[in-house]
Give the backbone structure.
Amino acid sequence: MNIKPLLQQTIDLISQPVVETERLANKSKKVSALFKEVALPYIIAIIIADFVGHVIFGKYMFREILDFALNVLVPDIFMLIMSAVLFTILLNEILHYYSLKSRIFRSLYIITYSFIPFFVASIFGGLLPKLTPLFTLCGLYSYYVLLCFLKAEYHETSKIKFRNIAITTVVAMMLMHWAIVGCYNLIF
């Protein structure tokens, strides 16, 4: 697991989303490589950041690791994985609705890379738990990266059709995001 290229890719994706999504749209990875090289390092970083943030700000002590795992770690990782699965299915269905060529694994590729700003915001939110709502708002930048990715991936679509796809995708994903967070808050 090489972190340096992922870190550079993250910086490029956040600072130059149009250029980086264009480059990523021309590449492809297997699901196992995508998980190992992108998702797993971010999941581990989010877990470590959550733990460090909760220890520093006094909510948990080192001896309460099981309590931390049951009350913070498991629900957060579950929500992250379920969000990725649901967003992937939703994006795939929206693309099918607009008669665009899509595959579920390509949709997972798009969602994983598009939500890197959200992962970064989750890391900072874990380190500073009191500022989590602010970092959650910063994570909304992921929707802009998603639109850049869709534009790079489906550049041959007309402006009107792309605008319809963009509006449908962003509105549907924001509604699903609010539903997931609402259910998460009700359950945990």
